[in-house]
Design goal:
Blueprint (H helix, E strand, L loop, with lengths): L20 E4 L5 H26 L4 E5 L11 H15 L4 E6 L2 E3 L7 H16 L5 E3 H13 L6 E5 H9 L1
Helix pairs in contact: 1-2, 4-5
Length: about 170
């Protein structure tokens, strides 16, 4: 594990050398980082890490994005996720997989009361409609690993929530 300073990511290019597959789940919240900080972390850091990974020999980049990502969205969160998807695709990896999970079901160390309420509700809904509105983070992780183990097809693949559930069960 290499610890890097994302504010000076270029100084850590060696940490991105010699990897066949790159996984990116980097993100923050607007509440935690402010609007500018959110854009810097979720778009700028991710795009720069992708560029460093490609320069270091990475052939397959796997990005966790978000359901509804759209570079033309009026909503900051979805717009930034769409923008970073476009930036990562433009880097030119042999293979690029973008996962667009719905609400992530997980336990956090920090307190996010509204997210906790949403997770309780969506956890109950998931019993009836398991792939509709949410996905456990463990399932996203399993799906990302499954993507890395599949033979490359030389293109961009976008996996929506239902496909993440299917791969995550494997």
């Amino acid at each position: 594990q290499a610890v890097v300073d994302f504010e000076r990511l270029g100084e850590h290019a060696a940490a991105f050398q010699g990897h066949d597959v790159g996984f990116c789940c980097l993100g923050t919240t607007r509440a935690k980082a402010g609007a500018d900080g959110f854009v810097r972390v979720d778009r700028d850091y991710v795009a720069q890490a992708a560029e460093l990974a490609r320069a270091g020999g990475c052939k397959h980049f796997i990005l966790q994005s978000s359901r509804g990502a759209n570079a033309k969205s009026r909503f900051l969160y979805l717009r930034v996720k769409g923008e970073v998807e476009n930036l990562v695709q433009a880097v030119g990896f042999d293979d690029c997989t973008i996962l667009r999970p719905a609400v992530l079901l997980c336990r956090r160390q920090e307190s996010r009361p509204m997210e906790w309420i949403a997770q309780q509700f969506l956890g109950a809904v998931a019993r009836l409609f398991p792939t509709a509105y949410s996905v456990p983070v463990e399932m996203v992780a399993r799906a990302m690993v499954a993507c890395a183990l599949q033979p490359g097809e030389g293109k961009v693949k976008v996996l929506e929530n239902g496909a993440i559930h299917e791969l995550g069960k494997a």
